[in-house]
Design brief:
This is Pyridoxamine 5'-phosphate oxidase N-terminal domain-containing protein. Helices cover about 35% and strands about 35% of the residues. With about 130 residues, the protein is α+β, with helices and mostly antiparallel strands. A seven-stranded antiparallel sheet has the order 2-1-5-6-7-4-3, sandwiched between helices. The model has no long low-confidence stretch (mean pLDDT about 90).
């Protein structure tokens, strides 16, 4: 298994987004693998989504529940997904995280509906030429 896939197989992914002034903001998220992308699901109006709309650059690495890094991070690109693809991400998260994933996403649907959250796909940055 390569390092990228290992990130998706881990329990938590530390996703670092960047403010306008370049300040990094790291957030641990549940993660799943979707083809060659790592995917996660989050609240649509969260600050991380607002930062990603402005700047798709991210750094990703393994972490624990509290966001403590468990290894090195790597540069990547994030993209916000449309509603049908976001639903796919929710299913992948539910499948990976079992009953806890189903309860969490189900509770989110009750509070926010399906439009209140969004899927995010992270792709590896190509190596520098």
């Amino acid at each position: 298994m390569d390092a990228w896939t290992a990130l998706g197989e881990g329990k938590y992914l530390l996703v670092t987004t960047f403010k306008r002034d370049g300040t990094p903001v790291a957030t641990p998220v549940w993660v799943a693998v979707d083809g060659t992308d790592l995917v996660f699901w989050t609240v649509r109006d969260s600050w991380k989504v607002k930062r990603l709309r402005r700047d798709p650059r991210v750094e990703v690495g393994p972490s624990d529940l509290r966001g403590n890094p468990l290894g090195p991070s790597t540069a990547a690109r994030a993209r916000l997904l449309d509603d049908p693809t976001s639903e796919r991400v929710r299913r992948l998260i539910q499948r990976k995280y079992g009953i806890l994933g189903r309860l969490t996403i189900g509770g989110s649907r009750l509070r926010r509906g399906t439009k209140g959250t969004i899927g995010v796909a992270i792709s590896q940055d190509p190596p520098p030429a």
